[in-house]
Amino acid sequence: MIVLLADTGGAAINWHTVMFYVVALAACGFAAMVAVSSNIVRMAFALIVCLSAVSGLLFLAGAHFVAAMQLMVYVGGTVVLLVFGVMLTAQKAFVSMKTTAGDWILGLVVGGTLLAILGQLIFAVPEWRHSDYQARAEAELAAYEEQLKSHIASGQDVTEAQRRRLADLITLARQGHPEETAQIGLALVGVRADRPSPEVAGYSGYLLPFEIVSVHLLVVLVGAAYLARAKRRRKPLLSSGVSTP
Amino acid sequence: MSFLTEPIGLAHYLTVGAFLFVAGIVCMATKRNALGILMGVELVLNGSVLNLIGFASPYFRQENLGLDGPAIALFVIVLAAAEAAVALAIALNFYNNHSTIDVDQADELRG
Amino acid sequence: MAEYFAAWFPAGWEFLGYTLAALLQAILLVHVIALGAFVFIWAERKVSGRIQDRLGPTRTGGAFGWLQSLADGIKLLSKEDLMPKDADPLLFRLAPYVAFAAGFAAFMALPFASGWVALHLNVGLFFLIAVLGLEVFGVILAGYSSGSKWALFGAMRQAAQVVSYEVPLGICVVIPLMICGTMDLVAIGDQQRGLFTNWLIFHDPFIFLVFWVYFTCAVASVNRAPFDLAEAESELVAGFLTEYSGIRWSLFFMAEYGSMILVSALAAILFFGGWNGPLPIFSALMDNFSYLAECWWFSTLANLLGVVNLLLKASIGVIAMMWVRWTFPRLRVDQVITMCLKYCVPIAAVCFLGVMVWTALGVPFMNDLLPSQNRALVREGWVHESDQRAVEFLQRLERNSDQGGVE
User: Which residues are paired to B33 by β-bridges?
Assistant: First the structure.
């Protein structure tokens, strides 16, 4: 997390917070537009912006790999698929279909209740409302700098390990937590590099889910291609746009 | 303007995730277009991805999910793409057979 | 750069310095696309003219007609702003900006020299490829919102082409990633420092083949001929661009030329050493004379020449794309998809296996002629900045303790 204003002075604006609010407002606003709009093409466009904003939120949380994956797979794949479907079925009559007011009221009541329950749950845990990452990182850096100052003042040289630790602490305080993409890759092939004891239950790698998802994707590919094939028509069409399988 | 000076906590991410989830549910409940319902499903899954990443981020909690968050989020994203593909194939088949994408017209099996 | 500007402002107002730095970087990036489009549109007309045994533009602005792009721009700005009756007004106006935004966003993660990148991401390469895939939305929106079925057909075909070619493009891009072990484009470029035999394209024969597959997929991805069936005048008038005229049309073309520059620059970084020249003049000087490595103007000069190197290589790539355009006939849509699924994907997959086996076995090739540095050491490069700060802090401490412990 980057505090871009000077530490001195009363209230320094936290730019990470500002960016979070901007992107979160975009995500929530366009999600509301998806839910409220009745024009299917506008809904698709709002979904694109909403999912891109969610990717921005993931970048802000430090999960760079997942955020780029969201952009590539979700926005660049799933939503493209949806938009293709929308284009293929967007005849005049189906572009804008209105829902009755009764359905709207029911939906909003259910949704509102769920949102109220979730909100109450979220704000019931006081530790979740604040984050002390920045304060902790800066305190640790200041303490280590003091330690090094006294170390040098007493005439000793700084070892390589101490310099490395200082650089690590500076990274944590200024640039944020470095993301270890290699660890995600290793976890997907079954090696958990972050936990000390791999024998403890729950700390295993993700090799089995990875293989299952791979086979799952293959099955889905074949199944969707089969479901969406062009079918042989019993009586021939006049136009030449249909190809027989 | 004090809320702009404090660092973001986990509750903020969970709120956005909850809002997306509820928007997806409202979308699923109120749309007549089959593809609109599918968009609601995408929103729900994105809310869950935000939750997972929020709990795994080192910026919000010191004991966090670690690698489990991004790994499960990856699986969620990939499986959502797979499910969207199949749902789209079904929706297009429905459109080809009934010449309408309105799910209110899908009542042939009604007893 | 950001800290340099922030030092100009009084305490509490440093964010203005950061805003200034961000604005400067944004302006530079927009100018890469704008000036690039300006130069390459003129270059296209000259190159196509020469290939067709004629001169191209010769009148505007002197002997070589180099102001032709400016004249084109003025003409396009002054055209009437048309919109068809059946068009969706909001989406029709929005589509060119979506296409341009996707192209421009990818430039944010592209490094122009060692450390000279607007957004230094650990997953820079992945982000770039992901954002390149978002250009398809501009195309689809344009085709749909034009309100004519020919535009819609053209947009669908083009979107199908772009989306299918992302698969072999992704495989081709993963191969240099695998060799370098990092998605950080700055680290990939830094690992190719030294003599030109250190460039990744000379790592093994498979990756040499992969570069040509990448080039094909890149040309298809940016919808350049011979894959430009969406702009095929004889079939679809102008595809998704049919109803666009004036400044909106020119935005689409700036997006297309921006993408061409981007994929060429990406090829330069991934395969041809990026900002490293063929002879390691500056790196040899910096390795041997440590005084030079520390003075800021020398490294800035080296980086500036690196930018020139990268832009030169990107320009060669773009001119090669133009050359290909005016040499080959246009492919049909089924030929395009056949090329992707039956040729590019299997060749890329086989080369992927080949490179993997070659790297795992450690078979030496041209890269090992004059190895300049350990790849693993360069890989963790993104903490260099904090390394610098740590070194500065310690130097300050040592200087102060030499002066008697007062600071």
Answer: B102
**C-alpha triplet A165, A169, A173: angle, nearest 5°:** 170
For A24, C154, C254, the CA distances from A73, given in Å and listed in that order, are 21, 24, 26
For chain A, the residue count is 245
CB atoms within 10 A of CB C330: 16
**What is the sign, positive or negative, of the torsion defined by CA atoms of C113, C117, C121, C126?**
negative
Chain A residue numbers with beta carbons less than 8 Å from the beta carbon of B35 are: 40, 44, 82, 85-86, 89
Closest CA to A134 of B4, C389, B6, C15: B6
Chains C and B in direct contact, meaning 3 or more beta-carbon pairs closer than 8 angstroms: no
Which single residue is written with the structure tokens 């303490």?
A143
Find out whether A47 and B43 touch, Cβ atoms under 8 Å: yes
Cα B95 from chain centroid (whole Å) = 24
Peptide bond into C57 cis (omega under 30): no
Distance CA C143, CA C154 (A): 7
**Contact between A74 and B80 (Cβ < 8 Å):** yes
How confident is the model over C212-242, as pLDDT tens digits?
999 999 998 888 768 877 666 556 566 777 7
Distance between CA atoms of residues A35 and B22, nearest Å: 9
pLDDT tens per residue across span B70-110? 999 999 999 999 999 999 999 988 888 888 888 888 888 87
> Each residue of C138-188: pLDDT tens digit?
888 888 888 887 788 888 888 888 889 999 999 999 999 998 888 889 888
Nearest to C397 among A41, A72, A148 (CB): A148
Query: How buried is A179 (Cβ within 10 angstroms: 0-12 exposed, 13-18 middle, 19+ buried)?
Result: buried
DSSP string, B11-67: HHHHHHHHHHHHHHHHHHHH--BHHHHHHHHHHHHHHHHHHHHHHH-TTT-SS--TT
Give the residue, C333 or A48, on which the prediction is more confident: A48
Neighbours of chain A (3+ CB pairs under 8 A): B, C
Distance of CA B44 to the CA centre of its chain: 2
Short-list C397, C225, C251, CA closest to C322 = C225
Burial zone of C390 (CB within 10 Å; 0-12 exposed, 13-18 middle, 19+ buried): buried
Q: What is the pTM of this model?
A: 0.88
- Any residues with CB less than 8 A from the CB of C84 and at least 6 apart, and which? C146, C147, C148, C243
User: Count of H helices and E strands in chain A?
Assistant: 10, 0
CB B37 within 8 A of CB B28: yes
Residue B71: list chain A partners with CB under 8 A. Answer: 184, 187-188, 206
Number of other CB atoms surrounding residue A234 within 10 Å: 5
C-chain residues near A71 (CB < 8 A) = 127, 130-131, 134
- At C283, which helix (H) or strand (E)? helix C281-288
Question: What CA–CA distance (Å, rounded) separates A39 from A90?
Answer: 10
**Chain A residues near any Cβ of chain C (below 8 Å):** 4-6, 8-9, 12-13, 15, 41-42, 45, 48, 52, 64-65, 68-69, 71-72, 75-77, 80, 83-84, 87, 90, 145, 148-149, 152-153, 158, 163, 166-168, 170-171, 174-175, 178-179, 181-182
Sign of CA dihedral B67, B71, B76, B77: positive
